[in-house]
């Protein structure tokens, strides 16, 4: 078996092979254009082929930026389109492709790789760990009332915020305008880019994704209504993409809500929760620390479900990765990191001062011993090291190690990723 890079001429072969691996057939492009694989970067793809040239496996990667705690933007590879034909599974094809790919990523000078795992049991053995999480919130329309804010400043802000469709209802008020997806592509792109630069765990959406309408709504060509929020000066600063469906068009489903400030998120939530002629509103990607449940007049009105992992993270260079992100507590921690898939092991002294870190090899006794996949899970601050210690996956070598690690690895807010790839 040979693993070879792909070119633009391999696109059809690559697409057919990855679909066959999952037992599916390629969809037919719509009149609006755009299929989910339209943004494949064929100079970053791999094909596993038999000696007679038949493709049996695929792996690809996108070029993204990942927002780290502290607001640093780091280049990452978004691993995608990983599949092996059923006829060649459990023969080492996947492991060979993943090892080959990790070597290529390092050769490009990258220190982080991310993916969305189709099956959680597959990718941990390659060094990836779940690092962001998402869930679904369902709110019955008849229980969708928001409580009045109890804090004085918040109440004053609420009195000036308008959610009327169209122009601002009063001087200094924001507004929500209802548009169709086809009318506001540039607005969505600009607002999302502002949002992702401030949200730990968020990935960039390169312009070519929007131009090619690749991926899922609201990037794709699928018809959607979009509630666009504008500030007092008319500048777009948030949006909610949604559709209405179900057997009797009873469910309003929000693909994603993007907001640059909490007040904007509240205005958009109020807009969709107040929609007539639906019986329930479903928020598909609900961040773990989202305040909406606390804003509902009935706390139990919102039902959480679909709690799942989303972005998985792998460190390719531990010192570079740890010094790239921002930190919010001073301290020192010795990490003993095992990387069995690549056959590597290292012990590192992490020293944090004034929000920046130094990370160097050391022979000091470790505070924590952990697998590189567990380091990926705690890296963005979405998983507390103490949780993995209690689960028996990370070893703490003294009683204070868990609390120190929790304090060091925390982020300014819970990491969240909305982008599908």
From TrEMBL:
Keyword list, A-Z: Acyltransferase, Transferase
Which residues are in the N-acetyltransferase domain?
Answer: 1-152
Q: Which Gene3D superfamilies match?
A: 3.40.630.30, SCP2 sterol-binding domain
Residue numbers binding acetyl-CoA: 82-84, 90-95, 118-119
InterPro entries per record: Acetyltransf_17 (IPR041380), Acetyltransferase_Eis (IPR051554), Acyl_CoA_acyltransferase (IPR016181), Eis_dom (IPR025559), GNAT_dom (IPR000182), NAcTrfase_Eis (IPR022902), SCP2_sterol-bd_dom_sf (IPR036527)
Q: Where is the active site?
A: 123 (proton donor), 421 (proton acceptor)
What does the sequence similarity comment in the record state about its family?
Belongs to the acetyltransferase Eis family.
Q: How does it assemble?
A: Homohexamer; trimer of dimers.
Name of this protein: GNAT family N-acetyltransferase
